[in-house]
Every structure is written in C-alpha cells, then in structure tokens.
Design goal:
With 157 residues, the chain is mostly helical. The chain has one domain. It is built from five helices and two strands; from the N terminus they run αααβααβ. A two-stranded antiparallel sheet has the order 1-2. The chain is globular, with a radius of gyration of 18 Å.
Length: 157
C-alpha cells in the first residue's frame, strides 16, 4: 500500500508478489537484503538536479572501477559476528561493504571511522533481518525468530 507506506494487509509475507517458482525458502534465504519500495520516497521533479549532475556513463565508469575494490575487509576489521550463521554473516558483510563502497570509496580499513561504519552496518542488519523475518512467516519450523543485532559486536579498534 503505497499511500500508507506499508505492505498491503492481505499479504501473508512480503514475497507473495513474486512468481510461485521464486517463493522457495531455500532460494529466498540467499537474498542478502530486502528494502521495500514503500520505505523510499517517490521520485518527483523537485528531486531532479537543478545544476550540474553526473552523466550516467561517467557514473557507470566509477561503479565499474569500484567493483575492483574489496570493502569487505573494512567490515571484517570492525565486526565480530560471534555465532551468526555463515549465510547471515555473508549477507550483512557484503551489504555493509557495498554501502561503504558507495559512501566512502576513499576509506581504507585503517581510516574508516566507527561513525561511518555504523549506519551502513545497521541498514545491512535491518535489511537481512527483514529477509529472515519473512522466511520465518513462510516456514516457521525452519526459520525461527532470530535477533541479528545480538549476534555481533564491534571491535574496539
């Protein structure tokens, strides 16, 4: 429901709009993150750049070059995932690393600040938790309620 900025009430889980073939819990567990469109603002003409902006081919070249850099080491340096499953660790590490790469491409693991990492890590955990929550609605016996926030801690570096 776009007007309420919330999922339609008749959905049992957020993956219902997907084709039946994709509503397999083993497949969906491999999604790293889920960010619902209703949580994002609508794109309106007043959001367009009024002055200078990036040409898309220039921005595409930047993204291509950023693919060569591994920012997962930034997350590994700061985060201890304790007893979290490997799939959840990978999902959170890769999502947080991708956000760091977009927002702080100039940072190294040594120069990254805690204040820069935390919002990226929080969003990665929230988006992965949403996937797990929906999987627990689809298959409660297989995917129980999991609190991902309690399954990691930051190093003091």
């Amino acid at each position: 429901d776009v007007e309420r900025r919330a999922p339609a009430r008749y959905y049992l889980h957020l993956f219902i709009p997907l084709p039946k073939e994709l509503q397999d819990s083993a497949f969906l567990d491999r999604l790293h993150a889920f960010l619902p469109g209703w949580e994002l603002p609508k794109i309106r003409p007043e959001n367009y750049a009024q002055g200078y902006g990036f040409m898309t081919d220039y921005l595409a070249e930047i993204f291509t070059r950023l693919r060569r850099k591994n920012h997962q080491t930034h997350v590994q340096r700061w985060v201890d995932f304790k007893h979290m499953t490997g799939r959840n660790q990978d999902a959170i590490r890769r999502t947080a690393a991708g956000l760091l790469k977009l927002l702080y491409p100039h940072r190294t693991p040594e120069t990254l600040l805690r204040e820069e990492l935390l919002p990226c890590l929080d969003l990665a955990v929230e988006c992965r938790a949403r996937v797990i929550e929906q999987l627990s609605r689809m298959a409660p016996g297989e995917f129980g309620s999991v609190d991902l926030r309690s399954q990691y801690q930051l190093h003091a570096t």
